[in-house]
């Protein structure tokens, strides 16, 4: 068994696609029209057949209170592995990305937390 899909709820699929591809560096994997929204996924260019991240519309009524509570408490929705958190932090900050947590070393992991502009906090993690 392996993880095939994971979702992030986004307030605007076009904005999310731009952020996740043009800023974070993922690549679009699937885009299927489904009425008002699309089945829209991105993947790591390093693993194009790996886990797909679904840029899921946030239209379900449970999403907003859930996301609002996570953001208010500073809790990331998900975590992405990176080779060098400090390098990614400086690269992304140079592109205007807002961080809610600068890189912090915690034993075997270094993390930073960013705002994805679509309603979520995302953690970047580097494992030693």
Task: Give a brief rundown of this model.
The chain is built from 3 helices and 8 strands. The chain is of the alpha/beta class.
Description:
- By secondary structure, the chain is an alpha/beta fold.
- 24% of the residues lie in helices and 41% in strands.
- The chain is built from three helices and eight strands.
- The chain has helices spanning 13-23, 63-72, 85-94; strands at residues 5-10, 27-34, 37-43, 52-57, 78-81, 99-106, 109-115, 121-127.
- The longest helix is centred in the first third of the chain and has 11 residues, at 13-23.
- It is globular, with a radius of gyration of 15 Å.
- The two termini are 26 Å apart.
- The mean pLDDT is 97.
Q: What is the strand content?
A: 35-45%
Strand order of the largest sheet: 1-4-3-2
Total number of helices: 3
Low-confidence stretches: none
Can you give the mean pLDDT?
97
Rg over CA atoms = 15 Å
Largest sheet: 4 strands, mixed
- Which class of secondary structure composition applies to the elements? alpha/beta
Helix content: 10-25%
Shape: globular
The separation of the N and C termini measures 26 Å
User: Secondary-structure element sequence?
Assistant: EHEEEHEHEEE
Q: What is the number of beta strands? A: 8
């Amino acid at each position: 068994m392996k993880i095939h899909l994971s979702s992030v709820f986004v307030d605007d699929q076009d904005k999310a696609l731009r952020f996740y591809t043009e800023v974070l560096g993922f690549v679009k994997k699937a885009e299927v029209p489904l009425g008002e929204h699309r089945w829209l996924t991105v993947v790591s260019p390093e693993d194009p057949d790996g886990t797909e991240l679904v840029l899921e519309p946030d239209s379900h009524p449970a999403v907003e209170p859930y996301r609002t509570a996570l953001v208010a408490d500073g809790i990331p929705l998900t975590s992405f592995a990176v080779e060098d958190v400090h390098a990614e932090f400086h690269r992304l900050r140079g592109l205007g990305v807002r961080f809610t947590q600068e890189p912090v070393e915690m034993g075997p992991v270094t993390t930073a937390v960013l705002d994805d502009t679509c309603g979520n906090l995302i953690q970047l993690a580097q494992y030693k």
